[in-house]
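Input:
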Amino acid sequence: MIRIENLHVTLPSRAGDVNILRGIDLNVPAGQKLGLIGPSGSGKSTLLMVLAGLEPPTSGQIEVAGHEYTKMSEDDLARFRRQHIGIVFQSFHLVPTMTAMENVALPLELAGLGDGFEVAAALLDEVGLGHRLDHYPAQMSGGEQQRVAIARALSANPPVLFADEPTGNLDQATGQVIMNLLVKLAEARQTTLVLITHDPELAQRCDVVATMRDGKIETAA
Amino acid sequence: MSQQNPIGIGLALRLARRELRGGLSGFRIFLLCLILGITTIAAVGSLSSALVAGMGAQGQSILGADVDFRLTHRQAFDGEKTWLDSFGEVSQIATMRTMVRHGVNNDIQSVLVEAKSVDAAYPVYGEIVLSTGASLADALRTQADPRARAKGGLIYGAVAEQSLLDRLEINVGTLVTLGQIRVRLNAVILNEPDRTAGGFPLAPRLLLSSDTLRAAGLLQPGSLINYHYRLKLPASAGVPEMLQIRAEAAEKFPEAGWRIRDRSDASPSLRRFIERLGLFLTLVGLTALVVGGVGVGNAITAYVQKRSESIAIMRALGASGRFIFYVYVAQIGALTLLGTAIGLALGAATPGAVKLFFGALLPVEIIPQLYPEPLLAAAGFGILSAAAFALWPLGQIEKTPVTALFRQSLGEVKPRPSRRIMLAIGLCFVGLAGLALLISERRDVAIWFGIGVGLSYLAFSGAARLIVWLAKRAGRPRQPELRMALSNITRPNAPVKAVMLSMGLSVTLLSAISMVDGNINRQIGSDLPERTPSFFFLDVQSHQIDAFVERAQANKAVRRVETSPFLRGQILAINDVASADLTPAPEAAWVLRGDRGLTYSAEAPSGGELVEGSWWASDYDGPPLISFDVDLAKGLGIGIGDTPIYEKSTGPRGV
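Output:
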């Protein structure tokens, strides 16, 4: 499902170029859950941004769901994400002017699927927020917002789900609940999951755990 | 899951509506800029139209007739008078500028007045209202002078505007001297229905009877006097009948030299003044929109930066750059329509408000109603200027990489909008210029206005770049305040250009208005006295010249006396083409309207410069020759060898 070969990302800065990713090779079969751990600055989030097509690589090959990124424009990648990729961010990234239901329905609307609100209501019910459909993000707790974000990421039923520190902004108990929900929903849909986390314990919930350091994958277990 | 539909405008509008739930707080400057500019243009246009419409509706009372025939220097001949009488009631009035004196011995004050003598039929339309409530006939009546009864002296009645009484510091009932007679000012004129028929007056009105004017001895041959014959047609007579009368006049009396006006355009000079003032103020309003446009651009840039997270989320969820562009164009479009609607509503309400608060002060009644043309022009200016300045920051959204959106580093990433957006921006500016040309009677004014605004814009943009460039090379000052100030100028996304443009263009606009005002005042107050006589006497008759010059030169304060023969005449035709059929340049059109001053001399005048042709020999004795002002000749499209035909009281002369 995901194949990366010799991936490099170098970003320019005033102090000179910074090599964020330095030759990553990775294979994630369909339906597998990959946990990526590593210290801050190791390049985990950049790797996820590149995998999601949000950050262009400097060099190397990326293929997700049979699509080679290097041949795609920004708008091609946007269209590709509509159909194939769900993303859960650490800081939720809900649209503040939209209700929970509208946030969840947004990927379906962008994908041109007519019954977005019906699916969104069902998904929110599934994540335990059936009573919060018309609430705005500012009216919800962090845990509730992350549950909305998970529902949104899965609403278009993508084959690949990327989660970047989904529990990073939550307390431990809420983080556990969110993690359980994420794993349960991914398994139920047989979604390929790439989970980035600081917490090795959370990463253990995945089929494979890889450790990143200084822009490289050191070990995979 | 149901079938997939392509995303389109419907979804963009839906998402725009959701985005606008965040409120209008980020759009205050945007809306204020837009509303101010549109309100100004709509208000000026509507007010101008309401005044012109008022003049049209009150055409009869402003003109004081259905059709007015004006003759200069002479009264109508019998045949002309008989023909005029055949149409119905005719009122004859005469107007002239003269002096009124008051005081005794060395304390005599003289004031210029616009004297108007009227007959018993005056006014044929409208109503004259006097401060005493008396009828006009009573106020103008002549009475025996009790102090001079033995000599058979008379006191003539007259009424005047309050400003005459103020200037002479006198009250109603005071006797003043007019020519050779004494006149009692019996009342103040509160309303003179045809006051604006001759354009804006230069002096207070003095209204008297025809007999009084004759008795004053002012009706000398060659006096600058206009005789008006005012026709009151049957109520059923409309524009076709008036046109028929004009045509018949031209056919029956082709050499009469009278100027004919009808109630459909009762005061062309006032109408022209209002329309030109309206155009000037519209261009001021358009400049306000351009200055505001910079604010519009800034407000949208700030809004887009504020919404960068939402934009990033939508891009991450699969929205293309162009789709996001549509979402934000829909938002700005909706707000533009809101601002335009508010501006138009305020502008459309202006005539009503002006009538309510200042109606009594205006010379013409305002007709408050919706005037579509100025409102459409104002809407066009508003929408085009909003689009011209908003499309750049909106076009940048489309091209901004999604990584910059996520890092919220929009200020550092400034992509150039796509080619079609650049084309649209260019079309908006062309549209603005086209609209300015369309509403301008004087195309050259609109063109120079556009060039001026464009050059100012470029100059201030260049100055902003220069300031940033200099600040970057100024080094690092020791004083922290100075260091912070410099770094604030050179930091990414610093508003140097916006501040420079807004301040610069605003100050330019204010300076331009103040310069126009200052130039006119300086010309009147400073330039002219250096180049022109301290006193200018008209109507000095040939037999009075020697005595006049002798008396003037006897005064030690008089350094120089110059005399010049002077007569007046109207240009009837040029090269056998009637004046009415000519199409002169706008700046020269006035030459063909009404009388022009003519003088004659064997020698070329010492103060002038002969730019083309040669002066006639001092003993020339052939067909009449003339010398003509070069700028006006260009405006009329004539040159050496052309033949203007002038009218004088005795008939036309080809020269």
